[in-house]
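hiii, so i know i said id send this last week but things got crazy w the move. better late than never?? heres the sequnce for the chain we talked about at the cafe, plus the structure i predicted for it. fair warning i was half asleep when i ran it
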Amino acid sequence: MKWIMCLSGLWLITFCSCNLRERELELKNKMQEVNKKEQELSLKEKEIQLKEEQLNKREHVSDSLLKIPPDTLSMLHPDLTGTWAVDMLCTATTCAGSAVGDSKVEQWEISLQHNTVIANAINKDKVIRTYSGTYTGNKLELSSQAIDTSTSKGVQIIIRLKKTKENEMEGEREIIRPDDCHIIYDLQLKKK
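okay and structure toks below
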């Protein structure tokens, strides 16, 4: 009987130890699977975090674009931009060195920037003056500040134009010097 009990105990120990090894293998395999799943989950979390950052950046760019007002002037008046031939004829003056009948010819490059009209006056392939202003209805008002080289004081130039026909404008240019003298030119503009 002892013999049977010993054998039974040995068999039980062997059976339990085999079962224990199988369980250890199963546990090891499950731990490897869990580790693999944790790594996959960590990678997915990083992917989601990157996508969230990209979305936030896109949203920020989109929001900032919405804050920029559309350049409605360029949409309403695309024919305003371009090269214009400008003929000027002096019609009135109280300044020494100027005479009624004096004439000038310039070329203006007109562009639109954020609903502001920019006109670069060009003479002999050089920008000699830049005007800026507004275009409302069919009226264009521009101005420029310059320095009178003889007095080193500011000169104000005001331009008022009205569209008369397609690709044509007319108006006047008033120059106000520091000694309060004025020069007025009639302007004729034709788009090239």
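btw DSSP finds two helices and eight strands in the chain. thought thatd interest u
miss u guys!!
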